[in-house]
Amino acid sequence: MSTIGYENWAVDLASVGAVYPFQGSEILLTILGVAFWIGWHRIQFVRESAHLEEAQKVGNKEKIKEMLEMY
Amino acid sequence: MEGNLNALTTIFTEFYYWVTVVFMFLIHVGFCMYEVGASRRRNHMHTLMKNIMIIPLVTVTFFFFGWWIYWAFPDFPFFGGLNHEMGNANLPWSETMGTNLQDRITGVFWAAFLLFSWTAASIVSGSVIERIRSSALWVHAVLIGSVFWIIDAAWGWHYAGWMVKYLGYHDAYASGVIHAIAGGYALGVIAVLGPRIGKFAADGTPRDIPPHNPWMLTIGIFLIYTGFWGFYAACNVPIISPESIGGQITGTTWTATNIYLAPTSLSAITFNFLMSLSGGLMAAYVVSKGDAFWTFSGGLAGIITASAGNDLYHPIQAMLIAAVGVVIVYKLHFWVERRFKIDDAVGAVAVHGYAGFVGLVISGFVLWGAPSSPFEGYAAINPIGQFLGAVIMFFGLGFLPGWLVAKAQNAAGALRVPEEIELQGLDYAEHHAYEDAKAEIIEADKAHLTAQ
């Protein structure tokens, strides 16, 4: 049993099309992929918001003045 | 692949696109260097990260839906609806969107378009440096890279696109379909985002914010030129038989074609690429009175202006059109900056957006009556079609969506970083562990020196 549908290459290549593993699961793979992408944006947005909130408190006048010197 | 000639042609085409894509990667390297060179030191990591993350985000979304849009949308929505047959073969779950020995072209052709998508997103990225939230930019990157630019490609950069058929729209090397739309989109975003602190004096006079590192900026733009040359090749079909173009071209002579399947050659577009680069550089040098950065950018703006017709122009026409475009673009940039208080940090709206718009309009007059495509019944190139095309690209698919999405983000407080953070630099805000570690080690070294 091969995940790609072929167990050896002694075949007529003219009849060979897709050779990736688990053919038939493409829609499920797409759903997982989209969830990964959307989930990434969510995690990034939440983390960035927390960072910025924290950084606003850190940014006292002295620190800002110091950073302004660094062009 | 039946027969050795077909096999050879297919494998040559596969290799050809693969090479162009690798060259085009240099555009993104160039954008990264340019943006980091242009930004101030306290924003480098943020600038770099903002541009690097465009790569994965636009890639995965272009796989999920961008590529499908290109094939399904050429007639959508007014001229026959979605093309499900072509679209279905390019859905993420299609068998040809994976390792498939019957199809050696989809992957490399997909990648060539994808690299255009990165470019569209990167053009926007340059305009907004030093004040946008990363999360906001990355949403824009997905929208311009995997939705709006690829809709305009389906309409105006597909052999069966409705703008090509009915308007005679001709844009062989993407004056409009990459540059005008991305420039328009960037303008929409920065109109809402606002200028960097200090960009305008109290009386509204704009201040120059010079680049942190002129060398990086220079090498960056040269890498963009190099990648752009590869991009020109990627816009062609390298070799095709007349039968494959529906017998529209008579005889038996095989040819290279532009994206519309109309004959051209790599030699022709190489002449025109280099002559338009030269025209742009020379005009920019004169109009900017020798300003280095505007001169370099003028080379790029020159190519972009001539790109719409660079499959057909004579090299000297390409040079002159580039030069005229650059003068218009330069003047327009400073007029818009003063009039509307727009802070375009790298001049991307001008170099890409205005140059693309102007290039489309000029080509409508210079190529008036020429066939845009080999297919029978298609409208010929004409000034009205090109002008309408420019408006659709810059305003319809570029400025308007960018402005609307930025407005929504701004209303939700998710567009711009807080003022204190902008002043102290985005690197400290988002990467303060790195900055703190640096500060600590500098202090430790100083203490060590003092103790000796």
Tell me the layout of helices and strands:
The complex is a heterodimer of chains A (71) and B (452).
Chain A: H1 26-58, H2 61-68
Chain B: H1 4-38, H2 44-52, H3 54-72, H4 84-88, H5 106-127, H6 134-156, H7 162-167, H8 175-193, H9 214-234, E1 237-240, E2 255-257, E3 263-264, H10 266-287, H11 292-307, H12 315-340, H13 348-366, H14 383-411, H15 419-424, H16 426-430, H17 432-451
Antiparallel strand pairs in B: 1-2, 2-3
Helix pairs in contact in B: 1-2, 1-5, 1-9, 3-5, 3-6, 5-6, 5-8, 6-8, 6-14, 8-13, 8-14, 9-11, 10-11, 10-12, 11-12, 11-13, 12-13, 13-14
Give the N-terminus to C-terminus distance of chain A in angstroms: 63 Å
- Output the strand order for the largest sheet of chain B: 1-2-3
Oligomer: heterodimer
Pick out the low-confidence regions of chain B.
none
In helices, the fraction of residues of chain A equals 55-70%
**Helix count of chain A?**
2
The fraction of residues in strands of chain A falls at under 5%
- Mean pLDDT of chain B comes to 94
